[in-house]
Every structure is written in C-alpha cells, then in structure tokens.
C-alpha cells in the first residue's frame, strides 16, 4: 500500500504543483495547466515591459548612451529634439520630429518664402522637397527631378541650366575661389542627363562631372571616383564645407568607392546620380549617407 507523506519538506510550499511526494521521496511532475498559464502570462509581461523601455513602435530613440547634440534638428543622420522633461531624444522620421517640436526646425532651411500654413516652406527642408499641388495642398518628394517637374522647374532653390543652386542663397561661397568656380560649373549642368563615361558638355557621369567642374577651377583630379578620393585630403562630417567631395562605397572601403558628388552646404550636394536621371541637387539622408569625404 502506498502512503502519501503530505508532511514532507517542500510539499506545503509548492504552489506550482511541480513536485509530488510519494513513498517519502520527492519526484518531479509536469507543471499543472494553471501553472503553465501563470508562467506564460509572466513571460508576456516581461517582454512587454522590455518593449516599453526602447519605445517600441514610436520611432523615437533615447540619447542616454550618446553625446548630446549641439542643437535640435537634423544632424546628417537623425532629428534631435528635447522632450517635456528637457531630455534629448531623436527620431529618423520627419513627421514624428515635427509632431514633437510643434512643426518647427532649426535645421530645416529653404530659400523659398515661408508657407502660409504650418511653417512649411517650398523647397528642401533637410530631408525632402516641399511643394503645393494644383489644389494648393502641400505635398513632398525626396526626388529632385520630381520636385522640378511638379514646380515647373522654377524654384528659388535651384533651376536647371543655371548657375544658381539650392545652396547659393543658403551657404557661403567656398573659402577657395577656385573651388567655388568648380561648384558653380557643376550647378550650371543641372538638368543635363546622366551619361555613362560622359565628360560633357551634353551629359556626365558622377566622376566626369566632378573632374570637369574642378578643371574649370584649375584643379586637376583623376577620372575615376575612388582615384579622386585618393587625391583628396580626408575630412570628417563635422569638417565638411562647400566644395568638398562626398563618396559612397559599396563595401565601406576606399577601393569600393563607386559614386562621388560635390557638397554644397546645408546637407545638400550636386550629383550625376545614375542612368535615367538628370544632374540634380540631392540631400544627405540616413538611408544613403556618404562613407568617405575628402577635400580637393
């Protein structure tokens, strides 16, 4: 006959039902259904608590482990702002940034006139091009050629075939007059088609545009993008100035550089991007950030 020893040590403090005592010996049993449910609920609570710590789904990150920015707004990769407690936070989503800052931005700048609603300005704001449609409603695009098409090609920011650029009014001329000559030549090519191995005057590829632009300023550069980087003095993002060169590498190395553009200031650059596009002014974004930077 089997006797259950209900007074054995551990029997009274085993609410999960994972241990049973028979014949004076403790044996491990499968958890009861109620016990499994309680454990499942506890695990969900832990996961939910962890998600709350990182702001899951809000698009906003904390600056706790990062150095505080110099000012609110776009820093080249994200938008910075202070929350209601005065703590720095960041997001890569422009709409979230506007919502958290009441629609203002110290980093966003455009040479067009201020819009009558919401503080929006026509032109580049640091992450996208704004314009009004035929109904007077505000719309935006990240593609400069689409922006030109929707605005009839006439923008105080820039216009194809002209030496006036999106940055001509919002950035100081290059410190070196020869470099500024190169910048102005590149801007005069706006609207011309990308042409593989093109050296002008009817079309250019990225390194062809850069070489021909700096040649007008009396500065000789090699023909290929990675060779052009080798001919520059490397600089950091914080040191960028108008006329510096931006490079993009497919593998993060200097040998892997396959694209080059001329920096204009205010996070903008002029480039011959790829086949099927025209020479245009584009903006630095977190999704397409240059891997290398150099000063001719």
Biggest β-sheet: strands ordered side by side in the sheet = 10-15-11-12-13-14
Binned, the helix content reads 10-25%
Q: What is the alpha-carbon Rg in Å?
A: 30 Å
Q: What's the CATH C level of the largest domain?
A: Alpha Beta
How many domains? The number is 3
Low-confidence stretches: 1-22, 44-57, 104-117, 154-170
What separation lies between the terminal Cα atoms?
96 Å
Biggest sheet architecture: 6 strands, antiparallel
Return the structural class. Answer: alpha+beta
Summarize model confidence as the mean pLDDT. 72
CATH topology of the largest domain: endopeptidase fold (from Nostoc punctiforme)
Q: Based on Cα principal axes, name the global outline.
A: globular
How many β strands by DSSP?
A: 15
Q: What is the chain-wise order of helices and strands? A: EEHEEEEHEEEHHHHEEEEEE
Strand content: 15-25%
Provide the CATH architecture of the largest domain.
Answer: Alpha-Beta Complex
Number of helices: 6
Please, what is the CATH homologous superfamily of the largest domain? Answer: endopeptidase domain like (from Nostoc punctiforme)
Task: Give the topology.
Blueprint lengths: L18 E4 L2 E4 L4 H21 L6 E3 L10 E2 L4 E4 L5 E4 L2 H8 L21 E2 L4 E4 L5 E4 L2 H7 L26 H12 L17 H11 L8 H6 L2 E2 L10 E5 L7 E9 L2 E4 L8 E4 L8 E4 L1
Antiparallel strand pairs: 1-2, 3-6, 4-5, 5-6, 7-8, 8-9, 10-15, 11-12, 11-15, 12-13, 13-14
